[in-house]
Amino acid sequence: MRLTRLTLAGLVVAALSSLPALAADFEVKMLNKGSDGSSMVFEPALTQIQPGDTVHFIAASKGHNAETIPGMFPEGAESFKSPIGKDFSFTFEKDGIYGIRCTPHYGMGMVAMIVVGEPTNLDEAKGVKQPGKAADRFEAIFTQLEAAK
Ligand SMILES: [Cu+2]
């Protein structure tokens, strides 16, 4: 009896561990003021996820949205542009770097990056010309991404 139970337990563990990893949820807040005092930010600026994971963009402050930056997401991936001032969720399926901007505050540097699996389009993403403060913020995010490897 005891042996049988142990065997059963072993089978259950084996079955569970062979299941694919469950999809995870992440939050990115859209804020007038970040925790470090800088204004117009997505927080965190960099989120690394796996294909099938969902990111919830939270309208913690009013007047913001989340939009994929043209040329800054993997080929074949779906682009999006969320309505201003609303929470928005997106499930990322394709590996690569997704540059995200707040449409009204792009030039003020309100940008974020979602990296799904492998950063397959790193060179293309780095090559996108960024306006104003977005250039500095993305430089910092790319540095953070390098450090996270
Ligand atoms: Cu904004």
From TrEMBL:
Pfam families in the record: Copper-bind (PF00127)
Binding site for Cu cation: 64, 102, 105, 110
Cofactor note: Binds 1 copper ion per subunit.
Main location: periplasm
Cofactor(s) recorded in Swiss-Prot or TrEMBL: Cu cation
Location in the cell: Periplasm
GO cellular component: periplasmic space
NCBIfam families for the chain: pseudoazurin
Protein name, entry field: Pseudoazurin
